[in-house]
Design brief:
Blueprint lengths: L5 E3 L9 E4 L2 E15 L3 H4 L2 E11 L5 E4 L4 E4 L20 H30 L4 H27 L6
Antiparallel strand pairs: 1-3, 2-3, 2-6, 3-4, 4-5
Helix pairs in contact: 2-3
Length: about 160
C-alpha cells in the first residue's frame, strides 16, 4: 500500500486551471501543489519540506503523480475536456467560442483598467492645465468603457464558466 502523498498548495506558482504534462501530452492535469516530505524534525514540528517536485492529478482520475515542474505547462480552459481530461475533446458542454469571447472581454477590461491607472497617475503628476484635463477626461472615458464591458460580461456571459 502506498503512503499518502503530501503537498503544499501554491496558487501563485500554479494559477492555471489545468496543465499539460510532457509525459502525457494528450491529457490535462490539475496541479495540487508542491510535493512535501517529512524531515528529521517533522515528528515534533509537524512541518515538512518541499521536494522540488509537483503533485498533480489527471482530470477524471484520482491518482496523484509526482512530476518535475519543468514538465508542467499551463493549458487554456478551452483546450481540454473538463469531464474526461482529454486535450482536444469538446464533450463537456463548454461553449468554446463564447468562452473565448468572454476571455477576450476580460482581457480588454484589464487593458482599460491599466490605462485608467496610468491616466490617473499622469493627471495627478501634471500641473493644472490642458494636459491634466486631457488625462482626467481620458480617465473618465476609461471608467465608462470599463463599466460598459463589465455590464456586458455580466449580462451576456453569465452562463460561461471561468
Amino acid at each position: 500500500m502506498r503512503a499518502r502523498q503530501h503537498y503544499e498548495t501554491d496558487d501563485q506558482a500554479f494559477p492555471a486551471e489545468a496543465y499539460s504534462v510532457r509525459q502525457c501530452p494528450g491529457v490535462a492535469f490539475y496541479v495540487l501543489g508542491w510535493e512535501t516530505a517529512p524531515d528529521e524534525d517533522t515528528e515534533w514540528s509537524g512541518m515538512e519540506e518541499r521536494t522540488g517536485r509537483v503533485v498533480a492529478v489527471m482530470i477524471g482520475d484520482d491518482f496523484k503523480h509526482s512530476l518535475d515542474p519543468a514538465d508542467v505547462t499551463p493549458l487554456a480552459r478551452e483546450a481540454y475536456c473538463g469531464v474526461c481530461g482529454q486535450v482536444g475533446c469538446a464533450h463537456d458542454g463548454l461553449d468554446r467560442e463564447r468562452y473565448r469571447e468572454a476571455q477576450e472581454l476580460k482581457e480588454e477590461i484589464a487593458v482599460q483598467e491599466r490605462r485608467l491607472k496610468e491616466c490617473l497617475v499622469l493627471a495627478h503628476g501634471c500641473r493644472r492645465g490642458y494636459v491634466s484635463a486631457n488625462y482626467r477626461a481620458e480617465a473618465r472615458q476609461c471608467v465608462v468603457r470599463i463599466r460598459t464591458m463589465r455590464e456586458k460580461l455580466k449580462n451576456e456571459f453569465a452562463d460561461v464558466e471561468g
